[in-house]
Amino acid sequence: MFIVSLVCCSECGLWEYQYPLFVENNSGYTIDCFFAIDDELAPFAPNIVPDPRNYLLRGVKPKTYSRFLNKIKWEVIFSDKKSDTISIYIFHTDTFNKYSWKEICEDYLVLKRYDLSLYDLKKLNFKVPYPPSPIMRDMKMYPPYEDK
Asked: What is the value of pTM for the model shown?
């Protein structure tokens, strides 16, 4: 039975993505996430929003998690980057239902943007919470972390 499962999983591609990044939604509403991983997609100005066609994770329901699947080790991705950071943009799902992409960009309708290093991701065990947890206090994000 195990051998059959192993063959089926490898043939259908489930084993191709071995390096996930989890987004944990601890809010009371559904969120969407964009991942700016490539250097040309990783803006560092707080008012720039990435192109929605890149690295999209949609519909992370409240009190659940979802995963961004990756075929390449995170260490390799970071070693090939000019910067030491990837950006993760968190949006309220309703934002996409109410506003155009132009309005979202112009008004910066982003709930939170994390600028995380490989060290940060490892510290989080590749599980990125929203809203940010106290362990993220010293990590780069916009708006900045606030103690509650």
From this structure: 0.79
